[in-house]
Each structure stands twice: as C-alpha cells, then as structure tokens.
Amino acid sequence: MEIRTQQTKLANNFGKLLRDKFGKGPEAVHVTISAPYVLVYIKGFISAMEEVLLEQGQELTVKTTREYLMKSIDPEIKGQIKAITDLEIQHIYYDWNLSNQSGVFVAVGPELASDTEDDRTQYSGKEEVHQEIISISRRAEKAPTEVFSYRLSDRSLIVIRKGILVPIEKQLISLGFDEKLRVAKRQLEGDLLLNSTHFAAILNSEVQDVFVDWDFELDNSIISFIIKPNK
Hints:
Elements: H1 3-22, E1 28-34, E2 37-43, H2 48-55, H3 59-85, E3 91-97, E4 102-108, H4 126-140, E5 146-153, E6 156-162, H5 167-174, H6 178-195, H7 198-203, E7 206-215, E8 220-228
Antiparallel strand pairs: 1-2, 2-4, 3-4, 5-6, 6-8, 7-8
Helix pairs in contact: 1-3, 4-6
C-alpha cells in the first residue's frame, strides 16, 4: 500500500475513533507518515460538552479530561498504525490547542531517532530554530542536553528535546503527580511557544499551530509545528 493511501486510511480511521470516544469527530484529519514518525493533525475538534465547559472558564477541566481519554485510546491508535503501516509504535505524544479547536498526535516507533542525518534534517533556519527552542526551554525549565529536528513535510516540523526535567519535576513525577505536571507544563511552555514570533520569521512561513508533549520516563519532549507552506 503506497504512503498516500496509508495516510488517507489512517485519517479516516482516526476520525471515526475520535467520534466514537468523544461523541463528536473532527472536521478534518491530516496524516503525515515519515518513518519512524506518524504525525496526525486534527482540526475542528471540540464536543458540545467541552464548549459549555470552556464558556464557563473550565479549560483546565477539558484538558485534564482529554489527558485521561487519550490514555484510553492509546492502544487503539498504535494498533491501527501497525495494521496499516507495519510500524511498531512505542509512544504517542499529543497536545491540543483549544482556542483553535485543533490537536496533534505524533506516534514514534521503533525508537526516537536522534543522530540520523537525512534530507529531513536539512532545512533552512534549522540552527536558529534550535536556538529559539533552547531559549524557551531555559525560561520554562532548563536548557535541554540535546536538540534534534526533522522537517517531516512542507507543512510539519518536529523538534525533539532530551534532558529537560529539573529535580523538582522528577520528584513530582515520582510522587504520582505526572498528569498535573503535564497539564501545567502544557500551559506554561505552550504559551511561550505560541507567543514566540521568531519561528515564523526563521522559517519564512506562517506558523498555524504549535504543540508540545513529554515522555517523563525517558526525559524527552516533542514540539510539533504546523506550517502554512508558501505558495
């Protein structure tokens, strides 16, 4: 099965899965397969109940609820990717932009690539992107020990950070506060990423969305940029 066919099939399957689990499906699902990554960008995704909660200022409740719902469908997402692409997915990173009614999944398998050099790592502005990511990381927690990035398509860029947790965060995780920490970090670091004007200038393109998630056990993170390609 060619990659475009795989992408279309996964988009259809994920749309149905979200509709079944959340009660309302997204308006659009865009899938990019670039092994070992599968990036899924979702648009127009919010349920009627979530709309009511957001109108009442309960954004944290919506985000927390989605954290637990996503954990419940994690095995199904991995299974569908395996069935269609034959990729063994080890971890799924995900995040939401509620104001844009958008979201992203980044499925990784079999391992988080790092020192691989190929065409995806060679793009204009790479070093400047890394420096801005390091600057934002310092403001939110600490500078990462390593930074890698991959331009998966003309519309998507992912940045991988390793070694970003500070001691107090590690202690909170060991005490079982990982989900609360994740929600708090999304708010803090997500705002810093969204409010940065440097990425659009560096990439010479409009940045439509920015997402961030962590694997606390492995002490790494993936930041996803959705980019509007220049015509």
